[in-house]
Amino acid sequence: MTQVGTDANPLRVAIIGAGPSGFYAADHLFRARDPVVEIDMFDRLPTPYGLVRAGVAPDHQKIKSVTKVFNRIASRPNFRYYGNVEFGVHITLADLREYYHQICYTTGAQTDRHLGIPGEDLVGSHSATEFVTWYNGHPDCQECCYDLSQERVAVVGVGNVAVDVARILSRTPDELAKTDIADYALEALSQSQVREIHLLGRRGPAQAAFTTPEAKELGELEDADVACLPEEVELDDLSRTALDHNPDQATIRKIEILREYASRQPTGKSRRLVIRFLVSPVELIGNDAGQVVRMHLARNALYATEAGTLRPRQTDHFEELPVGLVFRSVGYRGVPLPGVPFNDKWGVIANHKGRVINPDTQQPVVGEYTAGWIKRGPSGVIGTNKPDAAETVAFMLEDLIEGSILNPAQPEVAAAERLVLERQPDYFTYGDWLRLDELEVARGWEVGRPRVKFTSVADMLAALGR
Ligand code: NAP
Known about the structure:
Strand content: 15-25%
Structural class: alpha/beta
Helix content: 25-40%
Shape: globular
Number of helices: 17
Low-confidence stretches: none
Number of strands: 20
Strand order of the largest sheet: 3-2-1-4-20-19-18
Mean pLDDT: 97
Bound molecules: NADP nicotinamide-adenine-dinucleotide phosphate
């Protein structure tokens, strides 16, 4: 048997999940001087790009240009894409061990964290991550339904996802019509009666998770006035001292922006976006029909932990916020994959710097790796996944040199292709995706939009004449 990683016997790698971290992992493997690698990338959807397609806000088209990089990676002759092939359904871990030397899981974080308060499951209380996948046309969410006849909405959390949701709810139909938002979402949001959006941060302005450009963008909306409460953008003593010790320019700028919002007068725009700080919902209250009608909010004060982090603590001051729609935007959470060790507390695959580990022994599981959000949790921007994937790939290459890889019975490229064809005849190649991409862009061109997405797998297949 020739050495693995040569022309005669390439290193066979399966990457599960076609989002940014999957593509960056493939790129790092291709860039390594050695070995010769043959990569098969799987995704449960026909379409690649993960959150770049289904997460990045439709009014942030520039960010989506990173897909050109992904297309370049996919154009390598030693790369194959198997879309519409689900791990655990069409192919199992046992299958992959038969066909590959190494497996890398890059499935991201597909669900959301919960608040854990009474009333969280009332009608009208939704996860923001689900709303995001809905307006982005993800096939899982076409049936989702949001009562946009409500006038007042609360978005819990002040991360960039919360800001995306608040901004999309604040945009005019004309603003949205210039984007690649799903057609059904464009129609629903065009009829929206939402007039007031409350973004609720549990800590102060210095701890807000949203980034400065996102904060600034909220002040530039065509038909929504932005506001902050003056008393809530003043720093408390602990935050002031922390900022004096560590005068982080981005935080200082963010606070300046928020103070300026607190000084603004309403200009008569038809919507109002209010950014609140130091408040936490403690209960959602419903009417007889089980529909959320208001929120019981506690005011918080900050305290310093032993590690020096400033955390929120509930005070005995409360207020009521009448709301008919609530979006919980308190972070994504990873979903376990069948047969793959999972750290339930953190919502990630059990791993050490990208090597999957057996939680009982803490020893690496031979041949299995992970990168991206399912490795480290839902943090950082798209580019953060590049160094993250590099760390994982370094271990993959090190383990190859050590000979610590799987010993597949059928490492040939054609053998895996036969397996996929047998299990999922309707699989998508990258060529199929590029054809679908052209069709979406052409549909968009006709109506002056960047693209009009196909939002169901059946429509995607039909578009390619399947
Ligand atoms: P995130 O940045 O972690 O923000 C989560 C927010 O939820 C924080 O404000 C957090 O407050 C709050 N929170 C958590 N538990 C809470 C609770 N029990 N009650 C009230 N509030 C609670 O998460 P994300 O917004 O989902 O974003 C995920 C990642 O994607 C981030 O790295 C983000 O920057 C990135 N992203 C980037 C962009 C962009 O670049 N434009 C767009 C979207 C997402 P605490 O800080 O107090 O914990």
